[in-house]
Amino acid sequence: MISKLMISKFLIGKFARVTTAVVFGLSLSLSLFALAQADPAAAATPNAPSAAAAKATGTKVGTINIEQAIFASNEGRRDFDTLSKKFEPKQNELKGLADEIDSFKKQLNAQQDKLNEESRDKLVKQIEVKQKSFDRATQDAQEDFQSQQGEIGNKILTRMAPLIVKYAGENGYGMILDTSQQWPRGPVIWYGPAVDITQPIVEAFNVQSGVPAPAPGSVAPRPVRPATSKPAAPATKLPATTPPKQ
Q: Distance (Å, rounded) from C-alpha 33 to C-alpha 23?
């Protein structure tokens, strides 16, 4: 039987489920804000990257985990926790639907040898309809959650990006790379902790935002990627003529 924990991991978890597209969007936003800070006029020109690079005087290369910086900040943790609570009713709704599907599948497994063809086909059809409803509702909820999560991330990033540019300039960095995605999905193969500026940026942003730290004992969320969770399949295969969607 699918558990509430499984749905939680799939739907909301306790940290950012940022898809590749969202990560790219955040990284792109950071690049645009960095360009605007370096040279507002250059950001609107075709040669903006080279223009911004020409203004960089540092020689060090640094890294930052944008996802972690955003959602480990006091504001990010507060807003993400609010979003998670907002989706709890939907999580419970999906849990109820999943339990109902499991109940029908168990009924079919236990009685299919005793049911006539008409009754068996009717029960299989009910499972199919409810499974499709579950799949559709889960996908819609996940997309809605990720969309609102992306809004939170971009809202924070618009104010965090200038801090990153300022910190890089003051500490001799000529380039900052995002490590939110591990190689080969991300650009960085390896880096040491000495070049990572994530924590200093989080601390600076916390001061700037004025949002208080979470209550003592609370656990900072960890990145969790989307997973696929569906109601458990029956132990006995359903009739081949009308298989339910799995």
A: 15
Examine the pLDDT at 11 and tell me if it is beyond 70: no
Residue 137: which residues within 8 A CB-CB, separation 6 or more?
93, 94, 97
Amino acid 173: pLDDT = 94
**Pairwise CA distance, residues 243 & 170, whole Å:** 63
List helix spans (H) across 112-197: 117-170
Q: What is the three-class DSSP state of 48?
A: helix
Beta bridge partners of 64: 178
| Closest to 10 measured CA to CA, from 234, 227, 218 | 227
Q: Is the CB of residue 15 less than 8 Å from the CB of residue 224?
A: yes
Q: Looking at the predicted structure, is the pLDDT value of residue 121 above 50?
A: yes
DSSP label at 115?
Answer: S
Domains of the chain: which residue ranges?
Answer: 4-209
| SS3 assignment, position 68 | helix
Backbone angles phi and psi of 228, in degrees to 5: -115, 120
* Separation CA 129–CA 127 (nearest Å): 6
- More confident position, 115 or 4: 115
Q: What are the φ/ψ torsions at residue 34 (nearest 5 degrees)?
A: -65, -40
